[in-house]
Amino acid sequence: AVGLGPGSFTGLRIGLATAKGLAYALRLPLAGASSLAALALEGPEGRVLFATAVARQGELYVGRYRRRGARVEALRPEEAVTPDALAALLRDEADAVALGPALAEYGRALVAAGAPAERVLDAPAHPSALAVARLAQLPDRFDMQALFALEPHYVRACEAERNPKFPPAPGPAPTARRV
């Protein structure tokens, strides 16, 4: 099983290509899961969980989930938000907590923007491999079509896609891969 992101565009591509290459060479089944959902699977049960990752350019990737036992329920689609917007969400939702790798960089900024400090959690800091594996729907056997269909989970366009100096390439719009 492999985490599909969201995260660093290049990191996601390299990580997934490596996992796909190993699975192809060894004829092993491979499946992926949202890295933010896997992070939420390790958060406190019954609360609104804002699973976070660094998106750069002053933004955080945020997934809003609720954990119920060994499952997570997505409450909204994953998105990129500013630290101020996440702080407002934490202020407005009484049972919400934030967790994840973005808090090492943005935790203090969230509290400074008004997020209650007790709802900015130190752990878990990263999704575990076990959580990713629990969420991934691993096929019973090697399936080449399923393997080749796996793609990174992009929440927003990359900088090259947003740069007005470069017109879009011919063919399907790159937004087709974003969820």
Structure in a nutshell:
By secondary structure, this protein is α/β, with parallel strands linked by helices. The chain is 35% helix and 19% strand.
Write the layout of secondary structure elements.
Blueprint: E1 2-3, H1 9-26, E2 32-33, H2 35-40, E3 48-56, E4 59-68, E5 71-74, E6 79-81, H3 83-92, E7 96-99, H4 102-112, H5 129-135, H6 144-149, H7 159-162
Parallel strand pairs: 1-2, 3-7
Antiparallel strand pairs: 3-4, 4-5, 4-6
Helix pairs in contact: 3-4
Oligomer: single chain
The number of E-state strands comes to 7
The radius of gyration computed from the alpha-carbon positions, rounded to a whole number of angstroms, is 17 Å
Structural class: alpha/beta
What's the tally of helices? 7
Biggest sheet architecture: 5 strands, mixed
Separation of the first and last Cα atoms: 19 Å
Helix content: 25-40%
What is the 3D shape? globular
Order of helices and strands: EHEHEEEEHEHHHH
Mean pLDDT: 91
- Low-confidence blocks of residues: none
Beta-strand percentage range? 15-25%
